[in-house]
UniProtKB/TrEMBL annotation:
One of its GO terms (molecular function) is nitric oxide binding. It comes from Streptomyces venezuelae. CDD domains: HATPase_UhpB-NarQ-NarX-like (cd16917). InterPro entries: GAF (IPR003018), GAF-like_dom_sf (IPR029016), HATPase_C_sf (IPR036890), HATPase_dom (IPR003594), Sensor_HK_TwoCompSys (IPR050482), Sig_transdc_His_kin_sub3_dim/P (IPR011712). Keywords: Cytoplasm, Iron, Kinase, Magnesium, Metal-binding, Phosphoprotein, Transferase, Two-component regulatory system. This is Histidine kinase. GO terms for cellular component: membrane. Its cofactor is heme; Mg(2+). SMART domains: GAF (SM00065), HATPase_c (SM00387).
Length: 571
């Protein structure tokens, strides 16, 4: 062999050694870069970017396997633009060639992926791909996901060295993923502990049930990075659930324009839904794609549903039997599924939340008992003291009236006696209402009106002023009382949504053969071109019972709504 040939061969070997050295150096840099991160999302992104760079692949992807071990719950790509991803459509679920690496977690190298028996072809708008390298990523003894690389630049095939490099990277990636998950788990545990403490503090400070429910939902939504959250509670005497609180990550619950608007108050069947399954089983239920798993019927006209992805329904209970409610969390499509590491603290949090709700109910019951005892005392004092004194005064006036010679004076004394009789009737009616209120299955109109006004305080941002006058619990027919409460709820809801008022007053008066409900506010008034469907409903409701509904605009601004009906109305 000539000297120049030996020199050429030596140069080739030197170039190979340098290439190997550079590649090992690049691999070490990639391992360090991947291991430096503690945020799991960033770790996954760095892994797929490093893999594509190390083997000079035009396209790369990392598929995270879902809890069922059969489908991909997350799919991160490199080499595709956002426009190309949007044109391709839904991300792959793990069928075809991608599923081959899932079902057989071993390195797979192909010179033409289209010729493989498991290849399904590409969807529309997908760029053509030829060469393929797939390598599983293991975290301890678990296959976490797979690296997919296609189209080595220069039209070359992936070789054994490429496979070795990516396999080595996958080992380092598994360690990095494990570290990131442990770190995130510790961080979440701290957040859960703070949330539990906040809920307990809110409960001890006397916060009402709706505020506690919202706090539970909001904290769970923040800690799990969920886009959508709601809490559903069992329906009394039924086999379904009703959504008591709902919120979308885009805005506050009940706020105009958010996806949560259509969910509040929604009745949810137990059969075929995540909520129902969790409620009946008393344990969490997960789904990779919530709406494909029958959480709600496909025909339900609810906005925002199509953009939601992995979901989990967690019963609010301490174990055993049916729950006191269900907390549903859903992430956006493409986000990671809820893993086992997230479920355990979430279940513990739900148990604490259930205890908080039970304590709130027990405290409410104790307050109700104390209130009833106070009512009994007031009723007894009115009967034993006020009525007896008024009755004695009336008897004295009647006796004195016979001794009065002046006709006008005698007539005045007679009217005073009549007034005393009417006052005694009102007091007796009040005593009856105090002693029967909240003890029967159907509370009186006074209690229902007070409850409706109290419930509206949260939505309004301040408690409305309430005044009630007359024999509301005895003289108002039940059917008319139902219409009054419905009208009151509609007017308070309108004030909260549209009036932007800082002061709302409610007056309920029964007397002179009619009941009159007046709701006033200092808000913006009714715009000339505003929607009036709700006002028409109120007018029709009044007409149904032979009454009227009028809207007035006081001189100082705001609005005054007057709804009235005759007390003789029975329908």
């Amino acid at each position: 062999m000539r000297l120049d040939e030996l020199l050429d061969e030596l140069q080739v070997r030197i170039d190979e050694v340098r290439g190997t050295r550079d590649r090992v150096h690049s691999l070490l840099e990639a391992v360090v870069s991947v291991g430096r991160e503690l945020d799991l999302a960033q770790v996954l992104r760095r892994i797929v970017e490093a893999a594509a760079l190390l083997v000079d692949a035009e396209y790369g992807a990392l598929g995270v396997i879902g809890p069922d071990g059969r489908r991909l719950a997350q799919f991160l790509t490199v080499g595709l633009t956002d426009e190309e991803i949007a044109a391709i459509g839904p991300l792959p679920a793990g069928h075809g060639l991608l599923g081959e690496v899932i079902h057989h977690p071993e390195p797979l190298r192909l010179t033409d992926l289209g010729a493989h028996s498991s290849s399904y072809g590409f969807p529309a708008h997908h760029p053509p791909m030829r060469t393929f390298l797939g390598v599983p990523i293991r975290v301890r003894d678990e296959v976490f996901g797979n690296l997919y690389l296609t189209d080595k630049r220069g039209g070359l095939d992936f070789d054994t060295e490429d496979e070795t490099v990516i396999s080595t990277l996958s080992v380092a990636a598994g360690v990095a993923i494990d570290n990131a998950r442990l770190y995130e788990g510790a961080q979440r545990q701290q957040l859960w502990l703070r949330a539990n403490a906040e809920i307990t503090e809110s409960l001890l400070s006397g916060s009402p049930r709706p505020a506690v429910l919202e706090l539970i939902a909001r904290r769970a939504q923040e800690i799990t990075a969920a886009r959508f959250v709601h809490i559903a509670v069992p329906v009394d005497g039924g086999d379904g659930l009703v959504v008591e609180f709902a919120a979308d990550g885009a805005g506050e619950a009940g706020e105009a324009g958010t996806d949560a608007v259509g969910w509040q108050g929604l009745a949810v069947p137990c059969d075929g839904t995540l909520l129902g399954a969790a409620h009946r089983a008393g344990e969490p239920v997960t789904a990779l794609r919530a709406w494909e798993d029958g959480c709600y019927p496909a025909e339900a006209p609810l906005p925002g549903r199509d953009g939601l992805g992995p979901a989990v329904a967690v019963p609010l209970g301490t174990g055993g039997g049916q729950s006191r409610g269900v907390l549903l969390l859903s992430r956006s499509a493409g986000d990671p599924a809820f893993g086992e590491g997230e479920l355990e603290p979430l279940v513990a949090f739900a148990g604490q939340a259930a205890i908080a709700l039970e304590l709130a109910e027990r405290r409410r019951d104790a307050e109700q008992i104390a209130l009833l005892e106070e009512r009994d005392r007031i009723a007894r004092d009115l009967h034993d003291l006020a009525i007896q004194r008024l009755f004695a005064t009336g008897m004295t006036l009647q006796s004195a009236a016979r001794l009065v010679d002046h006709e006008g004076a005698a007539e005045r004394v007679g009217r005073a006696v009549d007034d005393l009789d009417e006052t005694i009737k009102i007091i007796r009616s009040t005593i009856f209402g105090l002693r029967t209120k909240d003890r029967d299955s159907a509370p009186g109109l006074r209690a229902r009106a007070a409850r409706a006004v109290g419930d509206a305080a949260t939505a309004l941002g301040h408690p409305p002023r309430l005044s009630m006058e007359g024999l509301l619990d005895t003289d108002v027919p039940p059917q008319v009382a139902d219409h009054v409460i419905a009208a009151l709820g509609e007017l308070l809801s309108n004030a909260a949504r549209h009036a932007r008022a800082s002061r709302v007053g409610v007056s309920l008066r029964a007397g002179q053969g009619e009941i009159v409900l007046t709701v006033t506010d200092n808000g913006t008034g009714i715009p000339a071109q505003g929607r009036r469907s709700g006002l028409r409903n109120l007018e029709e409701r009044a007409q149904d019972v032979g009454g009227t509904f009028t809207v007035e605009t006081p001189e100082g601004g705001g609005s005054s709504f007057v709804w009235r009906a005759p007390l003789g109305s029975g329908c």
